Amino acid sequence: MAFLALVFAMGGFAVAANKSSKSTLIKACYAKKTGDLRVAVKGKKKCRKGERRIKWNRRGPRGLAGQAGPQGAQGAQGAQGEPGEQGAQGPAGLSGVGGGGFTLTDGSIGTAAIADGSITQSKLAAGALTVSGLSTQIVVAETADDSTSPKTIAAGCPLGKTVIGGGAAATDQLGIPFNGPVALSFSNAFIGNSWRGRAYETSATSGTWRLTVYAICMKS
To answer: Could you tell me which of 147, 154, 130, 143 has the C-alpha nearest to residue 218?
Structure first.
């Protein structure tokens, strides 16, 4: 063990003394009595009397890889980069096929027809969704205020406008819903661009009542 310790202790000297050598081995002579170690003279195969020739590799085998160290702390966020150059404008899209407008049907306004956010306040003209903006008009028609039964009447839209809705109600002479035995038999759009209604007494009454029908018209 003392011999090996001495060899490794003198290793620095032995390597330094053999820098010019192309051999993969380091050769030295070890004095048996004193423990002195000297680099062997190049070209001589034998050591002096009382010495022992020893040798070892210049470079040992590669050791096993060590375990990975712990992860370091996250560094500070870097400065924001400069904005990139604006890209070139893309080509114009194809022109749409012309037509005479479109017709709304049940389910035609949905995610497949109108994209989210395509109709917003900023994209509508001021007052576009008002009665005047939509060119809407409410037309009202009333029957006589008496006890006649049944009563039928229609409210028609003027020329250039189309009925889009309406309603009917039995009322008294003040326009308040009639509190009596009267029922509506129908209230619907009718031929001739109008809204019609029909009401009747479910039992005889001494009270008088009228049938009021209204049509909601919009510019065609």
So the answer is: 130
